[in-house]
Amino acid sequence: MIDFDQLDRLIHEKSRLAIMTLLSARGDWSFQDLKTELGMSDGNLITHMRTLVNASYVEEDCDQSGSRPRTTYKLTTTGRRAFQTHIDLLEAIVKAAKG
User: Fold this and answer.
1) Nearest in space to 61 (alpha carbons), one of 41, 31, 40, 33
2) Which residues are CB-neighbours of 76 under 8 A, at least 6 positions away?
3) Residue 58's closest CA among 7, 14, 89, 18?
4) What is the 3-state secondary structure (H, E, C) of 23-87?
């Protein structure tokens, strides 16, 4: 029996699931690349990134060395573990649904 209460609500939200998927697949992403890839507004992306950073799922790094500041994000060990647990549960749900 699948325990649906184990779904991580913080990750399960559509935009945050997309962000976690991209960060899981490719190490680190710049804010601008995430924004372009996901088609999100600055405000919407910032809100979701703050939520993930506050949960310690994502780490933020701001590089001030160039002509413009560049913010990048990557999964933390805690975030990678939480994302993998979430994906494993989703796989179990799909498997159960297919019989």
Assistant:
1) 31
2) 56, 57, 58, 59
3) 18
4) HHHCCEEEHHHHHHHHCCCHHHHHHHHHHHHHCCCEEEEEECCCCCCEEEEEECHHHHHHHHHHH
Length, in residues, of the chain: 99
Q: What share of the chain in percent tops pLDDT 70?
A: 100
pLDDT of the residue at 60:
97
DSSP state, 7?
S
AA letter at 64: Q
Predicted pLDDT of residue 16: 98
